[in-house]
């Protein structure tokens, strides 16, 4: 995606499910989710081991199926696990998937695009938002 497309996406989305969210403050998923929350996004943490607990003013969900429709799914999982998350994002009607730094799955990205989702891969919104001046 171009910078303009990323900026457009980040200004349109309101609700973001963060798959792989961690309660540990030193983990990137924790910091990025908190950053997005501070920026005014509605962030829904997803982590089966933390389901039912509270974080960022939300109940942590076990899976995307427990979340319902969201604008974007931010994926903090290994590349080999990203495809299953992308398939779940498609199933719940997400509008976009964002694979974090180091997360690359071209086949899953293509499935998402064919389903009409916007795809960002190997980037971080907490880096892109300030870089793009959003």
Reconstruct the topology from this structure.
Blueprint: H1 3-12, E1 15-19, H2 28-38, E2 42-46, E3 54-55, E4 58-59, E5 72-75, H3 79-91, E6 96-99, H4 106-114, E7 118-120, H5 125-131
Parallel strand pairs: 1-2, 1-5, 5-6, 6-7
Antiparallel strand pairs: 3-4
Give a quick rundown of the structure.
This protein has five helices and seven strands. The protein is of the alpha/beta class and 134 residues long. The chain has a single domain (3-131), classed as Rossmann fold (3-Layer(aba) Sandwich), CATH 3.40.50.
Can you walk through the features of this model?
The chain has 134 residues and is of the alpha/beta class. The chain has one domain: 3-Layer(aba) Sandwich (Rossmann fold). Helix content is 37%, strand content 19%. A 5-stranded parallel sheet has the order 2-1-5-6-7, with helices on both faces. A two-stranded antiparallel ribbon has the order 3-4. Helix 3 runs parallel beside helix 4. It is globular.
**Rg:** 13 Å
Q: DSSP helix count?
A: 5
CATH architecture: 3-Layer(aba) Sandwich
Question: What top-tier CATH class fits best?
Answer: Alpha Beta
Mean pLDDT figure: 97
Strand residue percentage? 15-25%
Annotated CATH topology? Rossmann fold
Give the total of domains: 1
SSE topology string: HEHEEEEHEHEH
Fourth-level CATH superfamily: NAD(P)-binding Rossmann-like Domain
InterPro entries: CoA-bd (IPR003781), NAD(P)-bd_dom_sf (IPR036291)
Organism: Fuscibacter oryzae
Protein name: CoA-binding protein
Pfam families: CoA_binding_2
